[in-house]
Design goal:
With 515 residues, this protein is mostly helical. The chain folds into four domains: 6-85 and 254-347, HUPs (Rossmann fold, 3-Layer(aba) Sandwich); 88-252, Glutamyl-tRNA Synthetase, domain 3; 359-407; 416-514, Arc Repressor Mutant, subunit A. The chain is 45% helix and 10% strand. It is built from 20 helices and 14 strands. The strands form six sheets. Strands 1-2-3 form a three-stranded parallel beta sheet. Helix 16 packs antiparallel against helix 20 (493-514) and helix 17 (446-460) packs across helix 19 (484-491). Bound molecules: glutamic acid (GLU). The site of glutamic acid has 9 residues, from helix 6 and strand 9.
């Protein structure tokens, strides 16, 4: 155990966890495991207006599903409990006060309405980015601009106030990001962020820095969207006197839309037919359902493998990584600065790969509940055999059901379009004769079926190409599927004969009508 390496995943429960968030958690996990460090799950819920019921449970369940394990956290406790910021409320005020005391923060009494009015006025005058900062604060209602007895009176009388960081004018803030290198930002571009709100809650910035300090975080590994906040955090570490123990920063690249045009959003997933959330999510307010990888038939191993490679590149061309492989190979040095495009085909390829790694028994067990829910109760051994012949065609777990359904229920529809062109009315008799020939077979294995049928067709001078598609359609309803003889063998003699005979009038009706 390396006591010095402590990292955290610190999501806000403002909705379902995006796969970008899962990747952040994963990289933190890999980093901690490789170095024998500690991984913490901290819930940053100080913004009560954005709180979503169920989101925290969703986060925990998603990460558990992915196999990302924590050493301390909201769901398991630990030496720094509580790990939910709303329950740590009492801890933050003293640090905001300390900053005021040191002259690095100040009280501001401007109401939300007053701030809105200024913003509107500035907008009307063409300034769309008005900020509360080193220039404007002198004209606002705060402890820097008001006489000190006025400030004292306001506070004593219980007037609501916020505490803002006093960002200095024209100073360079430097930070050495492990992925981006040295990042320098001039303080003229940073506004006097609110650290402590009038509702008695810290803002994200204060709580985040204070908790990273209290929880002895060594590395902050988080998404690129937090890079603009990092200089502000550096200022906070400095002003709180924690500069020497400031964590190292690593800001991860964005996960981009497949065409590289912007951040991957929920809507892209819907549009392109893949989930952007690990688990299905039902919005508690609107009831809207967003699809999840788990419910859409993905393997957690595939999701982990594919997101690990969205931003990190191994030294060799290896693509398949188990969690253990990732723990051994991962390094922040090989995380790129550039955004990573989500490649839908590649993602599917990963799932197909992991599906093919499963035993037919495992796959049968995974899909059995779906059959049961549809009122079909296949024999497990038989189901395993069916899975063996169709699994190559499956990408998602659900495909195993769709691809094997016709083994358990007779086709209701026949996709005769594919055979319409070559159909001849005399085919009907040939099919009946084949059914009789099937009846005479003792050995109904696919090998023997193939041999006997081909021989029979040859003797009769009938082309294989003309009749096999008809048999396929009669047995399965469509042109897709594994080899016809394999299907027939699995259906068994009686059922195969039955399907040939009972389906024939229906396809004749469809085909003769067309010719
Ligand atoms: N609460 C922030 C979020 O929701 C965490 C950012 C950080 O890791 O510092 O992503």
């Amino acid at each position: 155990m390396n006591k010095n390496i402590r990292v955290r995943f610190a999501p806000s429960p403002t909705g379902p966890l995006h796969i970008g968030g899962v990747r952040t958690a994963l990289y933190n996990y890999l980093f901690a495991r490789q170095l024998g460090g500690t991984l913490i799950l901290r819930i940053e819920d100080t913004d009560q207006t954005r709180f979503y019921p169920g989101a925290e449970d969703y986060i925990v369940e998603s990460l558990t599903w992915c196999g990302i394990k924590f050493d301390e956290g909201v769901h398991i406790g630990g030496p720094h409990a509580p790990y939910r910021q709303s329950e740590r409320k009492h801890l933050y005020k003293q640090y905001a006060d300390l900053l005021v005391e040191k002259g690095h923060a100040y009280y501001a009494f401007d109401t939300a309405e007053e701030l809105d009015a200024i913003r509107d006025k500035m907008k009307a005058a063409g300034n769309h980015a008005w900020q509360y900062n080193h220039i404007t604060r002198v004209n606002m209602k705060n402890s820097l601009s008001l006489p000190s007895d006025d400030v004292k009176n306001r506070i004593d009388s219980g007037e609501p106030y916020v505490i803002r960081l006093k960002v200095p004018r024209n100073e360079e803030v430097k930070l050495n990001d492990l992925i981006r290198g040295v990042v320098v930002v001039n303080t003229n571009h940073i506004d006097d962020k609110v650290l402590y709100k009038s509702d008695g809650m810290p803002t994200y910035h204060l709580a985040n820095v204070v908790d990273d300090y209290l929880m002895q975080i060594s590395h902050v590994i988080r998404g690129e969207e937090w890079l603009p906040s990092a200089p502000l955090h550096v200022l906070l570490y400095k002003y709180l006197g924690w500069e020497d123990i400031m964590p190292s920063f690593a800001h991860l690249p964005l996960i981009l839309k497949p065409d590289g045009n912007g951040k991957l959003s929920k809507r892209d997933g819907d549009r392109l037919g893949f989930p952007v959330f690990p688990l299905e999510w039902k919005d508690p307010f609107t009831g809207e359902i967003s699809s999840g990888y788990r419910e859409s038939g993905w393997f957690a191993e595939a999701v982990v493998n594919l997101i690990a490679l969205l931003g990190w590149h191994p030294a060799n061309n290896q693509e398949i990584f188990s969690m253990q492989d990732l723990i051994e190979s991962f390094s922040l040095e090989r995380v790129s600065k550039a955004g990573a495009k989500f490649d839908v085909d590649k993602a599917r390829w990963f799932n197909q790969y992991y599906l093919r790694q499963q035993s037919t028994d495992t796959l049968s067990q995974l899909i059995y509940p779906k059959f049961k829910a549809e009122g079909i109760e296949p024999d497990m051994q038989h189901l395993s055999k069916v899975i063996e012949v169709i699994m190559e065609r499956a990408i998602y777990i659900g495909d195993l059901y769709n691809e094997s359904l016709y083994f358990f229920i007779r086709p209701e529809h026949y996709d005769t379009q594919a055979i319409a062109k070559k159909w001849k009315p005399e085919n009907a008799n040939i099919i009946l004769e084949i059914a009789d020939m099937f009846a005479s077979l003792i050995d109904f294995t696919s090998e023997s079926l193939e041999e006997r049928t081909k021989q029979w067709l040859m003797e009769k001078g009938i082309g294989i190409g003309a009749i096999m598609p008809v048999i396929r359609i009669l047995l399965t309803g469509s042109m897709a599927g594994p080899a016809v003889f394999e299907i027939a063998a699995l259906l068994g003699k009686e059922e195969s004969i039955n399907r040939l005979k009972t389906g024939l009038p229906e396809i004749e009706k469809q085909l003769n009508g067309k010719n």
